[in-house]
Design a protein that fits this description.
Shape: globular
Largest sheet: 8 strands, mixed
Helix content: 10-25%
Number of helices: 12
Structural class: alpha+beta
């Protein structure tokens, strides 16, 4: 690739660009704009989807399907990359997991009618997965798309939890892969992978007492266990089947804190040498990326301050380098590629913008805008977050991202401190954050805290959280608040704790133990009775990580310390449990203002997750305005 033609790189608000027969209106990433007066767009501008949501290239690279928001609906469009003509295939309320099977069949999951959908383009025909035949009628959503097969997918049951089957979407052919002996007994399977011929050959089986890696020789054969791990032990992560059709690709953390890719011989039950690692230290290896046909290892996906793919082939790395030159100060991702490497869907984003989508066609060559970024505010009013490391009281380094309101030098601001919602499951990253941007537009500083135990900082950081849910994780929250005060970003008594799920419980205990730090507390779907949570928790590998914290979780349970709270609470639950009502009673006895917001409407509709964020902000904004009484910048 000697050159890339960038079409209409410079755009301003209101300009119109014709690309591939589509009209795109918007602002380019990091484009300069004239200073404009500060505005406060409504929550919908930050959270509700607009424009193109998902894309998928056909295997032959000639067509692109994409989802586009049209009011309260999503249209599935088909774009001919040769002619630029785009047509709507169908309209639904909500669509997920868009992908191709061959060059004439498009599939997707649709929560709207609780089934996967199948579109045959040449016949202009649509049908639900459940309507293929009677055997398939009890299954609903696709759980593994199996890109190396032109017809097969793995689907999950609509009626019985954890059933799985392999289905040929062209003929209706069916093979039951797994059915638990009893529903809800702790058995399940996950991570089905196929070899380069499309045969489903390996899976991960979760038993009540251990996790097992299982393989078989061909479709229709029986799965046999080749490796097992006791509950609570780090398992090898199944990624795929090697070109030889026998060895497995596995990510292990046996010899490195952040993961390495190995080959595993299931016949000899022997782990081979490292196949590939990431070129950077302290970045978590999270998975592998195969070629579009699913037959060759192409890249390594990672999670660090940012997420992305490190491409193993030099051609893709060169393409990415040239694109990064065309879009300085941004992060560029090759979202999809054609098997011949001539056509790519490119996503360009920054910490201040939600991202633009381009089509790179090296046959022309041309880079054409498909979807402009369309940030909710002029760029000079969109602050960039900053990453910080915080030393906890015991010396453990914690990690956070801090977004300050514009202008950033206006002095200490009211701070919303948001701990990650569930330990051991994930982390916040240095990506575009619509929640942080919304609150910054309202004059608040916003901190995302990855306390010890969060995933994505290496196995040792996860292990540092073992036994600490009722212990040092709570101290981490208060230590982060003290750090923000010492750094001059906020003042003691000017902080709102914002917790969701288990982190809402962490926030309640933190506020009860160091009340002088905080002004208010937001509890979103919080888990406040930790002993009951432990008793009712489904059997899973994660349960072990909680159980070893059981003594501390009982003595420092949110309900146990609620009598020490001194700050007003906004409690948001779609369906409050008895424990939430007990929390309310404890707060009233302590003389603490307790406001409950109950709403069920955001759990329905085409964009219920986005609508949920809109609903939350509309409840929280007046609560904070009253608590801070004009202190926001």
């Amino acid at each position: 690739m000697d050159s890339i033609t960038v079409l209409e790189r410079k755009l301003s608000f209101g300009s119109v660009l014709l690309c591939l027969g589509l009209v795109a209106v918007g602002c380019p990433l990091l484009d300069a704009a004239e200073p404009q007066p500060a505005v406060r767009p409504p929550p919908e501008s930050f959270f509700m989807p607009a424009g193109i949501l998902q894309t998928a290239l056909s295997p032959d690279g000639t067509h692109l399907v994409y989802l586009k928001v049209e009011g309260q609906q999503t249209d599935i469009f088909l774009l001919d990359l040769n002619t630029g003509a785009a047509v709507s295939l169908m309209r639904l309320q909500r669509v997920t997991a868009l992908f191709w099977k061959g060059n004439d069949t498009v599939m997707f999951n649709s929560p709207s009618f609780k089934s996967a959908g199948i579109i045959t383009i040449s016949k202009h025909a649509f049908r639900r997965l459940q309507d293929l035949n009677d055997k398939v009628s009890s299954f609903s959503m696709v759980s593994a798309s199996l890109p190396s097969s032109s017809s097969d997918v793995v689907v999950g049951s609509a009626l019985l939890l954890d059933n799985a089957a392999r289905v040929d979407v062209l003929t209706g052919g069916y093979e039951l892969l797994f059915s638990p002996l009893k529903p809800m007994n702790g058995e399940s399977t996950s991570r089905y992978v196929a070899d380069k011929t499309g045969e489903v050959r390996a899976r991960v089986y979760q038993a009540r007492t251990d996790t097992q890696l299982q393989v078989r020789k061909h479709n229709g054969g029986s799965f046999k266990t080749v490796k097992g791990w006791p509950i609570g032990e780090p398992i090898w992560e199944l990624q795929g089947i090697a070109d030889d059709g026998s060895n497995l690709f596995l990510i292990t953390r046996d010899d490195t804190d952040f993961g390495a890719l190995h080959l595993f011989d299931p016949d000899q039950k022997k782990l081979g040498p490292v196949v590939a690692t990431l070129p950077w230290p302290n970045v978590e290896l999270t998975g592998v990326v195969f070629s579009p046909d699913g037959k060759q290892l192409a890249g390594l996906s990672y999670l660090g301050d940012t997420t992305g793919v490190y491409w193993l082939d030099e051609a893709r790395r060169n393409i990415l380098a040239k694109l990064e030159t065309s879009f300085p100060g941004t992060r560029v991702h090759l979202a999809q590629s054609s098997p011949d490497g001539k056509v790519h869907v490119v996503r360009v984003e920054s910490t201040r913008e939600p991202g633009a989508v381009y089509v790179l066609d090296l046959r022309k060559p041309a880079l054409s805008l498909l979807q402009a970024s369309n940030p909710p505010l002029p760029l000079e009013q969109m602050p960039a977050p900053k990453a910080f490391d915080i030393k906890a009281r015991d010396g453990q380094m914690l990690h956070c991202y801090l977004t300050l309101p514009v202008p950033a030098g206006a002095g200490p601001a009211p701070l919303i401190l948001c701990p990650y919602k569930e330990p051991f499951s994930g982390r916040f990253s240095y990506d575009y954050d619509c929640v942080a941007q919304f609150w910054a537009s309202r004059g608040y500083a916003f901190m995302r805290l990855n306390y010890r135990g969060c995933y994505g900082y290496g196995m040792s950081y996860q292990r540092a959280g073992d036994g600490e849910i009722g212990g040092r994780m709570i101290d981490d929250v208060n230590d982060a608040a003290h750090w923000a005060v010492a750094g001059g970003y906020t003042r003691a008594g000017q902080i709102c704790l914002y917790g969701e799920g288990l982190s809402a419980g962490l926030a309640i205990v933190a506020a009860a133990e160091d009340p002088g730090l905080y002004r208010s507390l937001i509890d979103i779907e919080g888990i406040t009775d930790w002993p009951t949570m432990l008793y009712n928790m489904p059997f899973s590998p994660a349960k072990h990580r909680y159980l070893i914290s059981s003594d501390a979780m009982k003595s420092r349970s949110p309900l146990a310390v609620a009598k020490n709270l001194r700050v007003p609470i906004l409690d948001i639950h779609a369906d409050p449990l008895n424990e939430e009502r007990e929390l309310e009673e404890a707060c009233k006895k302590a003389g603490v203002s307790f406001k409950r917001a109950e709403h069920l409407g955001w759990k329905t509709g085409p964009f219920f997750l986005e609508a949920r964020e809109v609903y939350l902000t509309r409840q929280i904004e007046p609560f904070l305005a009253k608590c801070f009484a004009g202190e926001a910048h």
